[in-house]
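From the shared-data thread, chain only:
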Amino acid sequence: MKKLITTLLAVVAFAAAAQEITGAGATFPAPLYSKWASEYNKATNIKINYQSVGSGAGIKQIEAKTVIFGASDMPLTDEKLQASGLFQFPTAIGGVVPVINVKGIEPGQLRLTGAVIADIFLGKITKWDDAAIKALNTSLTLPDQDINVVRRADGSGTTFIWTNYLSKVSKEFKDTIGEGTAVNWKVGAGGKGNEGVAAMVRQLPGSFGYVEYAYVKQAKMNWVNVQNSAGTWVAPTEGSFKAAAANADWNKTYFQILTNQAGREAWPISGATFILVYLKPEDAAKSKTALTFFDWAFNNGDKAADDLDYVALPPAVKAKIRADWKQLGLF
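Structure, as tokens:
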């Protein structure tokens, strides 16, 4: 009898474990994945445990085989994926947004070029009433106040998108700081995750940081207009993120970087967010369950994406991703 009870308990424990899938990585899509996971749990009773730890940690965890899926806003090259035995696919598109905490300036009032933003993060521009900022904002009264730079302290895909953009618009930034999920910053205080940066900017007078747009909307943060590659002053919106993604050729490769794209309406600091899964998973059943979740999200999650100000993938891109899953024997 005891043996039978032990066996039954083991079966129940195994079934419960199979109903919980763990992934980790980017904070950029965390609000969206959290919403999808909640709705999926209600529909299926399967729990998706997503740990919002940053893209750098997400990549490390999938490579160390401690999670079923990883998440990153920095796409891995096809060569890196092959070497690591991984497959990646995009899930949504969004934007990284400069945010400020300057008394007397309302959301969208301040204008900054990429070159000026780069100089701020290089420590060359240190005051809000610097001549370079005043020249772009002649109608604003800018304070004689120190700029308190806030950036990520952890390995971050949001930082990759931010530094990739600044490296494209400033040779000095590219040569001295460069791009990556983690870089050697010259100035600033670090916050952990988009959540940490958002909290620090809200609390610190004179601050200037960067976060994913969903965090801007949720926290009602003071955002900045940026001049894009066409010379247009644009605001961060679903439409400007979609315009930035218009040139992406997903049929060629999923390694697509969407910063500084052409187009009058394109938000220049846009990016896709990606999921990483094993080509040859140790637990095929759990990997398939993870893909079933994302398949469900592609079918049922567009409204949540819209509500949280992400751009859902076009139907043709979703169809290609599903075809690739099947071709690789993953789904």
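The chain has 14 helices and 13 strands.
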